[in-house]
Design goal:
mainly alpha
Length: 67
């Protein structure tokens, strides 16, 4: 779960990404931003898993057709 914490959408560390934009001196965390990044990370993970499952399924179908 901490994987997405402190990373921007390209996967690079970015601590300023989560600081509230209300003022330059503000150090309050923007929990909406945390949640948004968490959901985006989960979506990318699910997309990868879905793609991998489709590849495996297609390979299994090809193997069955050959038999």
């Amino acid at each position: 779960m901490a994987h997405w914490f402190g990373q921007n959408s390209s996967g690079h560390s970015s601590s300023h990404h989560f600081v509230s934009a209300d003022s330059v001196n503000s150090h309050e965390l923007d929990y909406g931003e945390f949640f948004t990044e968490y959901i985006k990370s989960k979506q990318r993970s699910m997309d990868r898993q879905r793609h991998q499952a489709a590849k495996v399924s297609n390979q299994m179908k090809r193997d069955q057709d050959r038999s």
